[in-house]
């Protein structure tokens, strides 16, 4: 039976970033299990904003070269209310720009770096069972690509296998563990379109017809989102309806949303969830396996990176110095940051969306909130700081 210091379930942002930090920063080996194919991981469409801390982590650990070359790096975002756009000068207010770099491009860079370093990623491999996390040694039972049952032992295991993680219940079943949830009365309809950029910078638009977001992928592929009903299906949104709604919500006399062939349509549900604690013995949760944020502000990937920025030095200290103080503090260090991101994503969502059947009072109050933020330097600075993200935690090993 083979052994690895760290077994990592899931080749998403949490898993691949942890594997990379362990190897690059501390020379610690790990095995990454991923139930999907490499192609699936590298092609699944997700959000795409990198916080300044995430950009720096990529650069400092040798995986930032393509991001610096290909990402759409902007100094500002626009926030519109009833057709009036306000520029949030992120760089001027915080010293940091924002980067649109889709999650699957991030994953491609980490997969390439890991394979180039001769490290293992087991694609098409399903983890069936994890045991031993309350004792001295973890055992992972898995089915190989060919369907063969195998086992691997590990000193520690990290589950970064997404919001449906089967491992989460091992923690939530503990006495005193909490899984806190919130549902939202709206969703996003996301499209990819072959069209030139509408403008260089992103536009978050609050309009009486509902929210819309103008984002980008490449100079010739754009990413747009429209607020929709959570129960909407793709067939309810014809191309004609999409363009009509985007123009109503965003286009003005001096700016027209650029149109083209739509080649991807999907409904994204809004959910918030936080698991606390994120540890049980030798088992750790990170990323969406532990927490989900709604998409507004695109904090999901960045939160996974923040989790493993604690976990990687924590595991290194435990494995190299036989000192588990940082690992034992994982939940108390990670969860407060999760709540801050949760709050920011909730706040941006509630301030920018129209509440279905919203009453006059609620609508006017939330417009006043948005105007207060946009019209004061203090308000714009707060929004900008949260948007570009807090610094990532750093620990000596
Ligand atoms: C994107 C997604 C977001 O949730 C966001 O706030 C900004 C951009 C995107 O997919 O491009």
Fill in the keyword field for this structure.
13 helices; oxidoreductase; alpha+beta; 8-stranded mixed beta sheet; 397 residues; 7-stranded mixed beta sheet; flavoprotein; FAD/NAD(P)-binding domain; FAD; FAD binding; D-Amino Acid Oxidase, Chain A, domain 2; binds 3,4-dihydroxybenzoic acid; EC 1.14.13.2; 21 strands
Q: Would you identify the regions where 5 or more consecutive residues have pLDDT less than 50?
A: none
**Terminal Cα span:** 30 Å
CATH superfamily of the largest domain: FAD/NAD(P)-binding domain
From the alpha-carbon coordinates, what is the Rg to the nearest angstrom? 21 Å
CATH fold-level assignment of the largest domain: FAD/NAD(P)-binding domain
**What percentage of residues falls in helices of 4 or more residues?**
25-40%
Structural class: alpha+beta
